[in-house]
Structure formats: C-alpha cells, structure tokens
Amino acid sequence: MGNWFESVTTLLFKYPPRVFARGDLVMAPVVPVMLVTAAAAILLLIIIVAYARVRSLRPTDRAILATLRATAVLLVIGCLLRPGLVIASAVPQRNVLAVLMDDSRSMRIRDVGDSTRTAALQHTFADTGALSKQLAEKFAIRRFRFAADASPIAGAASLKSNGTRSDLAQALNDVREDLNGMPLAGVVIVSDGADNGSGALDDALLALRARRVPVFTVGVGTERFERDVAIERVQAPRRTLAGASSVVEADVRIRGAGRDPVPITVEADGRVVATEAARVGEKGDLTTVRFRIPPLDPGVHRIAVRAKALPTEIVTENNEWQTSIEVRAGPDRILYLEGEPRPEFAFLRRAVANDSAVQVVGLMRSAERKFLRLGVRDSLDLLGGFPTSREELFGYRAIILGSIEASFFTTEQLRMLADFVSLRGGGLMVLGGRASLSEGGYAGTPLADVLPITISAGSVNVDGPATPVMVRPTRAGEVHAALQLRSTLVSSRSRWDSLPALTTVNRLGALRAGAAMLLAGTAEGGRSDVPILAWQRYGRGMSAVFGVQDSWLWKMDTSIPVEDVTHQTLWRQLVRWMVEDAPAPFEIMASPSRVAPGEPVSLRARVSTPFFTDVNDATVTVTVTSPNGNAQNVPLEWTLREDGTYTARFTPSDTGRYVLDAVATRGRDSVQTATSSLLVDERGADVAQAELRASLLRRIAEETGGRYYPLADAGKLVEDAVFTEAGVTVREAKDLWDMPAVFLLVALLLGAEWGYRRWRGLA
Predict the structure, then answer these.
(1) pLDDT band for position 12 (50/70/90)?
(2) What does the mean pLDDT of the chain come to?
(3) Which residues, 6 or more positions from 404, have their beta carbon under 8 angstroms from its beta carbon?
C-alpha cells in the first residue's frame, strides 16, 4: 500500500514526499506579494457575500459550496506566487557514506524468518548485493562493525557477532573521528537497537546534527517476543563488608508464562545462595525480584542470576546476568561524637560491638574539655578531643554526630567535616538532639550545605517538648538494604509496622533537591511526612540525617521482647551502609567491569595522599593476571584533565576473572597498593533486551534528519540518502506551481462544486 501511494504521489507531484521533507520552500511571485494578498482577500469576500445573499440555500449548502469555490480560487492565486522547492543533494561519487553494522551477540538471535539477524543483515548488505551496488554508484562506502566500539571492516561477511555490549554513542563518535576531514554525507546504522554502553548518546547525536549529517537506521529483528523470560537489569552492591548479607535486585520480563511462576536463582562462585519465584505483574510483564545473599568470605565473588527458560522460548541468552561483588574484611573505623551523656551513645555502640567488620570509636564530652574515649587504638588517640588535622580525621570512613552544638567546633573543623564528605568520600550521619541540626546552630556553617535537609536559623525547638512520631519506611526505604529488618520484604514491612513510636526535638526542615527520604514520621495531629531518615550524595561521599533522639526505645520499650534484635540489626546495617562506598586513598577499577574477549577495557586509578590530596607525580603500574595465571604489566599515565587520575587501555583475550594488582610509587618511600578484578565472559548484557528496539532507532533518525526503515524496506535508503546537506552537495530549485497535481486539484474542486449542486438539485 505504501509503495502504491508513493508511486501515485510521484506521478502527480513529480517528486516523492520525502523530497518535500528535505527541501526549503521559496517564492518567486510574478506580482508583488501584497497585491496577491489583497486580490485573494477581495475574492474571498466576494464569494462569501455572494453565497450569503442566496436565501434559497440552506446554511450547510452555502458553507460547502463557498468553501469549495474559495479553495479553488486560493489555489489559483497561490500559483501567482510561483512556489518552489530548493533541494540539496549529494554529488555522485564525491561523498562518503558510513555504514555501521551491529556485531554484538544479540545479532545471533534467530528471529528473521529462519535466519539469524546477522545472516539477514549480511544478505541485505552483501558486497555484491543490489543495495550495496546502488549505494556504491552514488557514494564512496566505508563499512564499520561495532559493539563496544567501532572499527573498519572490508564487508558484511566479516561480522562475527561476538560483542557483549552495543555502545551506539561510542560507535558514532568513533566513525565521526575516523572520517574527520572527509565529505561525510550520512551515516547508516544497521542494528537491533540494543544500546547498553556507557556513552552519552545525546552528545553523539548533537555532534552529528551540528554538522548536518543525517543518520539513517535500519532495524533488524522482532519487536516483540511472544514467549520470553529476560533478566533486563541486576542491581547489586559493588563493594560490601564481610559478615553481613547483601541485597540483589533483578528486573525480570516474563511473556508467555501465564500465571505459572518462573524460578530465579542466584549463584555465588557457582554455588546457589538464593532462590525466588517470579510471576507476571498485574500492571505489565516486568516484575522486580529481590534476593538476600548470605554473608560471603572476603574477596571478589562472581554472582550469576539465572532464570529457568520457558518451553519453546526463542531466546535463552537473556536468561542470565553475571556481575561481581567485592567483599572487604575491614574493620572500618567510624567516629561517633556525642556532646552529652545520653542512652543513644551506649546503645548504638553496643548494637555494633559484635560486628568485626566495623569499629565504632566513641568520643563523648563529659565536661568542659573532658572526653570519654572508647575504642581508641592507643592512649594518645583523640586525647585532645575531636581531630584537628585532616590526616587524623580522614583516617575514619564515617562520622556520626550526636547532640553536639556547632560552636563546639572551630571554623576549620567544620570545613574539614564538609571536605570529609565531598573530598574524602566518607559518610556523615547527624542524629537528632537538643544541640543538633538547627537547634545546634548549624545554619550558615560549612556543614549546613552538606546535609540532606534544610537548616534554619529561626523557628527552632530549643526548649520545647519532644514530639512523638510513628516511624515507617517510605517506598524507597522499604527496598533499601540498610532498612531490611527481616529476611523478606513482607516480614520486614510487618516488623516496621509493629515498632513503637520515637520522639524528636528538632524542627526538621524540607528535603534538598536530590535528597531522598527513607524513613518518614507521622506526628500526632501534625505532619505525616517528617523526614526522620534522609540522605543525599555530596561530592564523593554521602550524608544522612536520622532525626530522632531515642532509637534505643526499639530495644528497651516494654513492647519489645528481650531477645529481639531489631535495634542491633538496624544500626549494624546503617553503619555498614555509611562506610561501604567510602573510597581508599588509592583505588584501581576497570570500566566496564564486564566484557567479552577482545573488547578493550579502560583501567582507571585514583591516587591520593592519606589525607586525600590528589597526587599527579606518581608512577602507577597494574599487574593484570589472567585466569590461566599469565601476568602482564600495564603502566598507567596521568590524565591531564583530572587531578590524581591515571588511565590505560587493556584488551583481555581469555574468559574468566582477571585480577588487577596496582602499585603506586612516589619518591623512594611512598608505596600504595590496591586490588580489583575484571569479569570476562561470552554472555554479555547485550542480550538483556533482545527484542528489536525500533523506538530508539527511530529517535536517532528523527533527531538527525534521517529516516528509519525495517530491514525489508532498506532498499528505500538509496533514494533518501542522496538528499543531504552534508558533504559535497548541489542545490537545485524545483518549481511546484506548475505541477500536474495543481491543475488536477483545481479541476477536482470545481468538479466537486458542480457535482454537489447537481446532487442537491441546485444546477
């Protein structure tokens, strides 16, 4: 039907519709425009008045006849303006057309008839095929394969479909840089639309749009599978502390299973550690499954999430997702500063006392310039109270501030606390209390901007009564790993609902932009959204406010059984949450952390002094040990764009886990070491969303002035690619006023008017 319509349109208008979409409309009137406009207005007025005076016609008849006559007159008058179309087209054999062909694993899926997507692509874009020959008559063709990046190839027959990622942004940037300086008339992307790279696609499209280079996209594959189970996303902590369970969240798309549950298992190093049953949700085919992984030994563990395949399922490659979790032994040191003797200090330290992975160092002010020190390393540790040097303060991974007024600190110490979060990347939690937050005079201090709620200088509750609040998790808090009080979400929610009320003495402000509320409080006869536990990212670290003063009631209230461990569990998880992502002075990481053999990896190291000042004159070397034991030294170089950052490229060749041992030296005595890992396998994230993503391909084409085609319609590319404003072009003006369609349309309007008169008995 579409081909027939275009054929008729071309016959009538001399040019197909896509030519109009790419041209600029111009006018060359034979008489002044104002004169034509005045004539059109006078004639329209005459027509309206003439038909209005014919009283024998019904209002409907007058309106229809006047409209037909006026349209015909306006069309004739419009021809006096001599409209034309200026079209830019590529000069044959003077421009380059880049053809990017998807070479990722998702192209192995057999859903194009009886062929794989790659086979269908190779058939359509074969070097000796009709489409390639027609394109070669008009352009100099440059072919590329792409997965994680793009590289030139001789032809479509070279595709292997072994990439574990599809990075469209990186591919477009690579092609643009490779063909820089050449007359690039357009880019053709032949893909299933799977895009799971880390590049910014909008930026890549903006760069092409600035050069007026259109991107034509050709979709390969099926847009919707009838029977399929796909693990589309897995969220797991990158690092965690030993001795505690971890929460893994998976988004699973289920089609064709009815109401039957689909078993999902989680394996750690090949051992099943968790099992859940996923069912189709009521609002769609995407459901979220959460797993609690038991404590793992220190080290790097390979985590695999697997879904059982459905009978006759077309694609099974997307039934598995692999990642890794680094378990750190600890102990991580946390400094807890309290300004007055109160139960919260003792109960919090007691809650985490048996956790070998964290060590809470207590510093409580007992009198003026006198402190009770608990958990210190030696007799001189914190002897003068709160740290006065960055090196001493930055030795902790997290800080908890109790009821302590801002005037206790010097201005430099408050600035150090802000830098502890933003530069060191540590965690900061401020508890509620009479001398805390706004009541403690923190408004206007360097610490005020760090906190996730606004700090006010007025309307504070210094001497007012405590306000009872019922504390419950928000929707974000219900699934947060630090707030899981029981083994399942249902039982955890039930436990939260049974906890007694706590009290707050602070006027807790509003959330800052970008902050999240995990626990909300409901006051009697007052607010129902009091931000009891709020947090935000700030610089490299995080900050939180726990706005109650007596969480110890969840241990000592008369309704709490003696053997209940809710209070201990909560504080152990909160403290671990604060320190898990706190960086070390020297770290090494691979990006992406999971690739296929032959795909390049970026090694990135961050080098700082013990008090987290960036180091730019270090010598950094990474020893990469492959799964078979072979070691390779990779030197890293300082990047001029970012202080303290060193990078290098590495390409793995074998499957398995690579160990990255990094060493940074500065001078003769300063040596730092760090270890990380890299997962290399054949089953990548590229098949997680295995269906053809035509919507993404359409967006790419529309934003750059190109066009999207299903693979069966790829032949239309030959005609469309010629009309471009990029490269070496020629501009041609085509008259529109003398097209056959104009005469036919005028005749049709006048004939319709006469026919209507005959039908109504008026002629």
Answers:
(1) very low
(2) 84
(3) 337, 338, 339, 365, 433, 435, 436, 440
Give residue 594's identity as a one-letter amino acid code. Answer: R
H helical segments located in 99-250: 117-124, 130-138, 168-178, 201-210
**Could you give the strand order of the β-sheet that contains 320-328, starting from the edge strand earlier in sequence?**
239-241, 320-328, 299-307, 262-268, 271-278
* Contact criterion met (CB below 8 Å) for 438 and 455: yes
pLDDT digit string, tens, across residues 194-240: 887 767 888 999 998 888 888 999 999 988 888 888 888 888 888 88
Altogether, the residues listed in the chain come to a count of: 763
Q: How far apart are CA 621 and CA 636, in angstroms?
A: 6
Q: Is the alpha carbon torsion for 432, 433, 437, 442 positive or negative?
A: negative
Mean pLDDT of 657-682: 84
- Start-end of H helices in 453-611: 475-478, 489-498, 553-556, 566-580
C-alpha–C-alpha distance, residues 580 and 575, integer Å: 9
Find out whether the peptide bond into 29 is cis, omega within 30 degrees of 0. no
Which residues sit opposite 235 in a β-bridge? 249
* Other CB atoms within 10 A of residue 153 CB: 17
Count of CA atoms in the C-beta half-sphere (13 A) of 315: 35
User: Rounded distance, CA 672 to CA 657, Å?
Assistant: 23
> Residue 256: left if φ>0, alpha if ψ -120 to 50, beta else—which one?
left
Q: pLDDT tens digits for 572-584? A: 999 999 998 888 8
> What distance lies between CA 160 and its chain's CA centroid?
28
Counting residues of the chain whose pLDDT is more than 90, the rounded percentage is 36
Q: How far apart are alpha carbons 65 and 70 in whole angstroms? A: 8
Q: Looking at beta carbons, which pairs linking 13-16 to residues 24 or more positions away fall under 8 Å?
A: 13/739, 13/740, 13/741, 14/734, 14/739, 14/740, 15/85, 15/734, 16/719
**Exposure string for 413-434, b = 16+ CB within 10 A, e = fewer:** bbebbbbbbbbbbbbbbbbbbb
Strand, coil or helix: 407 = helix
